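Two proteins were folded this term; both appear here.
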Amino acid sequence: MFIFENFLHAIAEILRILLDLYGWIILFYVIVSWLKPSPHNEIIRSIIHFLHLVTEPVLTRIRRIIPPMGLDFSPFIVYLMIIFLQIFLVTSLHKLADNIGNLGKPKIENSTYSIHHESSPNEYKQTNDLF
């Protein structure tokens, strides 16, 4: 079970990294679109071409649903979708992996921490309260 648990944690982390990276690419795309750099420089032209290849398929789909109204809100909507996926999907994968890892382990309910009186006051002992 621990192999599948670790596999799900790895998938969740890779997904988180890819979503972070795509968020940065979207942000860079927005900045470049505001600056309107000179297309005569080959390096700049290559960067702009890469940004269009990576972002336009997603942004075009958003623009079909919400057409630009003076300002193009599609990068902002994509960024909100990235945040949603990071919070919902990545967190859910981590929790699913944790739940799979806890299968077969005894569940301790109603546990509290209390000071163990025979030892020093700084030592804590876990006790199970039944009532």
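Next, the second protein.
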Amino acid sequence: MLDIVRQAEELAYSTDWRKTAKAMRGLRQQFHALNLADDDSLSIRFRIAQQTFMDRRADYFSRGNHNKGSNLQDELSDLQHKAEELRVSIQNCHNTIKDLQNRRNNLDRDVDQSSIETFINESCREVEEDISQKTASLQLIESQIVMLSSSFCGP
């Protein structure tokens, strides 16, 4: 974990935008696979390193230091990053639903716990709505990726 954070911090000030974006995506996937709490100090350091790189890259390109091809590639990279974050978030929502269902199934049936069961059922519905919204966003982003890829790579 610490190694992933250190690598991200080292890459945060790189100016090789394309190569670094790819490396950062790989580190982000490794980091998310560890399923750590978002308030953990290493998680915060990792997010700061990622954000520093993205802010610097956005600033660079916003000043007109790019051509059409690199701009499209940068936009494509950002969309792919958003799509990956949505995929991870959707998976986390599915895991939350499973956890809630397990808790509901493990309630002591001899004691009236209908209010707890109702709360769990409502929570599951809310998470399912969140999944639906995120899935719709993911589909939109994936269609944008296809369109952008075809304009970048040609028909």
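Helices lie at 2-11, 17-33, 41-62, 68-105, 114-153. The chain has a mean pLDDT of 82. These notes refer to the second protein only.
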